[in-house]
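Dock nicotinamide-adenine-dinucleotide; give full complex structure.
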Amino acid sequence: MANILVTGGAGYIGSHTCLELLHAGHDVVVFDNLSNSSEESLRRVEKLANKSSVFVQGDIRHQAELDQVFQAHQIDAVIHFAGLKAVGESQKNPLIYFDNNIAGSVQLIKSMEKAGVFNLVFSSSATVYGESNPSPYQEDMPLSLPNNNYGYTKLIIEQILEKMALADSRWSIALLRYFNPVGAHKSGQIGEDPQGIPNNLMPYVTQVAVGRRESLSIFGNDYPTKDGTCERDFIHVVDLAQAHVLAVANRLNNKGCRAWNIGTGSPISVLKIKETFERVNGIQIPTEFTKRRVGDLSAFYADASRAKAELGWQPQYTLEDMLADSWNWQKQNPNGFN
Ligand code: NAD
Ligand code: WQD
């Protein structure tokens, strides 16, 4: 069993991953500045796991804070979730994204090197495939510049990590390229809790369902897809969390830098999400079609065969599970962790 440092571990995907790590018998140290999360998620994780973890409030951009964590704890591997993720905000304030995501990751790499810790799992994104690759995306396709600054930070960090592994054979790095994470732990105790108006589809749908928003706007119904709305590869957050447990185990036994897609491989339209949510949960979602959102791709989905072959990872949850679990979380926590 290993001692894992989880940056951004209080957040949506991080909290679910901490729970799976604790269930798998690992020890967990969470490092998070709580800029987009609350410590309550970690209290709930500990309760669900019936096991405690260590929480350190700190910022990945601050070297002394990170160094202190590595001095205080014997860390075997790091899972690096910490970062900002709002595409629109990254267009308005690129420097905040370059600083938090890129400079913060460089700082983490420096502290890891100093501490002699070379196993790293990084939260990347399908956005690194850019705008022109055909689906299903495969890991060895040429990457290209995403059309937004958030995506750009993911591509740059991936490239920095690849160069680190090329230059120094002690590194063992997993680049997990997530598709569209949704859902929540079955208990409904932890889940996605965006601040302000949600940017992403799923929390918007659940906030309409719970009465916090009036209606869902579907951005465009004139795309070249079956029903005219965009198609995405939605993945249950617990399946995604499991992929991290497997990736850590893989990295503790291998060297180099390797990318894995984490998606189901099935494209699902935005309209189908709304209709399936209504059917599974018995709630109507008032909806209007509005104009396309700038920057949205029509459709993309994963070829996840590499993760299956090399990590032994396969999604366990259905689309119905994703939508039932998202709602179960939201209805038990209408105002999130507040
Ligand atoms: P989240 O915002 O819920 O979690 C990120 C966590 O990082 C938060 O708890 C936040 O407080 C923390 N954080 C941010 N900046 C920090 C800093 N400078 N120092 C310390 N902590 C900091 O987001 P999430 O959805 O859980 O995403 C986790 C990671 O996965 C992110 O890197 C994100 O870019 C990536 N990712 C997310 C998605 C998605 O759709 N949710 C898709 C692909 C990739
Ligand atoms: C999904 C679909 C929208 C909200 C983003 C990032 C990506 C990754 C995941 C981190 C799109 C439509 C949405 C709404 C809508 N994040 N939609 N009404 O854009 O696929 O991916 O999050 O790495 O990098 O770009 O996810 O949930 O925002 O949108 O119609 O109110 O839902 O147009 O087609 P996206 P999303």
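Observed: The mean pLDDT is 98.
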